Amino acid sequence: MAMKCAKIVLLVQLLPFFVWSQTGADCANAIPLTLDGVCRTYPTSSSTGPSVICTSYAGDSPITFFTFTTNSTPDKVLIDVTAPTAEPCEVALYTSGCGTMYTSGGMCFDDGKGLWSFAYNFTIQPNTTYKLRIKTTTTGNITLCAKNYTPTNNTCAGATSIGTTPLTDNNACNTPGAISPASLLCAATLENTAFYQFYVASDGYCVVNIGSINCDNGNGNNSNGFQVGFFTGSCSSLSHLGCDSNSNVGSNSFLQFTTPSLTAGTKVIVAIDGIQGSNCSYTISGINILSVLSTELEDFSGWKDLRSNILKWTILNEIAGQYIVERSENGKDFYAIGKLDSKPNGKPKTSYTFEDDKPLKQLFYRIKQVRAEGRIAVSKIIQINRNDIPELNVLLVNPVVGNNLDMTILSENKLQLSYVITTFAGQYFSKGIINCNAGTTRLNRDLSTLSSGKYFITLSNKDKQLTRSFIKMN
């Protein structure tokens, strides 16, 4: 019994020490951050101190230290900060021992909330511990949502697809985009550029909506917003459409941009960059636009045989939904010709095949993905030209063994043909009429009265004539 009491006393003695060691009152007792994206709330420490980067935040107020360690990649670290009562706060980055403050690692949040990450020009070391000193105006609770995060839309090639439903995103972890000159984004310099893409849905104007804008930065430019540029063409050869900027923005600011009149199916690239490196969060969507099925679509190709066009595509990490196959004669006006349900099976890749058995000389195809939650995205457009495929072809089983001539007639259109079978010397044997379907027509002719030898069959109408030879064997 005494031993049990001793254990209880020991626990009581250790508990105050554990709480004290987690207060974040100084660098040695910094609060560990778990980089898993989960939002957690921490009380401010009892320590106070002056501002170190935001000169407008005068006077001593609570300071709380946090610590995190980068991964081996190393990925950037993104932290969503909300201070007590949404009042101003500053975030400063230090070495693990807090002996040095990184001047390029500070952020000022005038409204008490925003996104912190390493500055665009900061060299991140793998498996390295860093400290954050957060100064708040008042005591209370600090909410931090922290995660490892390196965005895929750092480059034009990795542009994020947008649609009519607003997408919430940010440019906090992005690097400068390879666009020159920076004035194409109504900018003097580029620091953290995020890329987006969409297709024009119908001929005419497209409207890009950017809302719920919240931007923060370092001392002296902590209210700056962002600049944005719009382009068409391939990433290796972008054609400028225009640009706009949104400086000195407040919470929930709104920016709207209308493109020039564009042709349906045109791909548009949108580039967003923070003014002087501002970290900005926002929503982005559009009107008269279609999402680009790109990151999920590994391959989309078209093949042709004598009677049909065959489409094949591969999807990465399949989810529930449907694929609508669309075709067009002019590359602009598409209509549905088939539908396939998706096959989510937990595999990294899922392949699909669709056959268009009524092809024309020239056709354009695209795949429209409709996800279960309603999001719609379309693939790139591919073209299949069948000018090298004959409008009429006849396949014979040759030589003919027995008394049955087996023929397959391939025709792009429904038509009527006359046929004549003659000997090698030109002597007439038999004739008749064949009604052919568009596509494949299979038929047989009895050759039991025909002796062995070489023969010809000629099929014709007023527009076409085709002759094939065959050998009859007994």
Give an overview in words.
The protein has 474 residues and is mainly beta. The protein has 4 domains: 19-148, Jelly Rolls (Sandwich), CATH 2.60.120; 152-291, Jelly Rolls (Sandwich), CATH 2.60.120.380; 297-385, Immunoglobulins (Immunoglobulin-like, Sandwich), CATH 2.60.40.10; 392-473, Macroglobulin (MG2) domain (Immunoglobulin-like), CATH 2.60.40.1930. The chain has 1 helix and 36 strands. Strands 11, 13, 15, 16, 18, 20, 23, 24, 26, 27 and 28 form an 11-stranded mixed beta sheet that branches.
Indicate the topology.
Blueprint: H1 2-21, E1 31-32, E2 36-43, E3 48-49, E4 61-69, E5 77-82, E6 89-94, E7 101-109, E8 113-116, E9 129-136, E10 141-148, E11 160-161, E12 167-170, E13 193-200, E14 207-216, E15 226-234, E16 237-246, E17 253-258, E18 267-274, E19 279-287, E20 289-292, E21 297-304, E22 309-316, E23 321-328, E24 335-341, E25 349-356, E26 362-371, E27 376-378, E28 382-385, E29 392-396, E30 400-401, E31 404-411, E32 415-423, E33 428-436, E34 439-446, E35 453-460, E36 465-473
Parallel strand pairs: 1-4, 11-13, 20-27, 30-36
Antiparallel strand pairs: 2-10, 3-4, 4-9, 5-8, 5-10, 6-7, 6-9, 12-19, 13-18, 13-20, 14-17, 14-19, 15-16, 15-18, 21-22, 22-25, 23-24, 23-26, 26-27, 26-28, 29-31, 31-34, 32-33, 32-35, 35-36
How many helices? The count is 1
Low-confidence stretches: 1-21
Mean pLDDT: 87
Global morphology: elongated
CATH architecture of the largest domain: Sandwich
The percent range for strand residues is over 45%
What's the CATH class of the largest domain, please? Mainly Beta
**Biggest sheet record:** 11 strands, mixed
User: Number of folding domains?
Assistant: 4
**CATH topology grouping of the largest domain:** Jelly Rolls
End-to-end C-alpha gap: 109 Å
Radius of gyration in whole Å, from Cα? Answer: 34 Å
Helix content: under 10%
- Give the helix/strand class: mainly beta
Structure summary, number of beta strands: 36
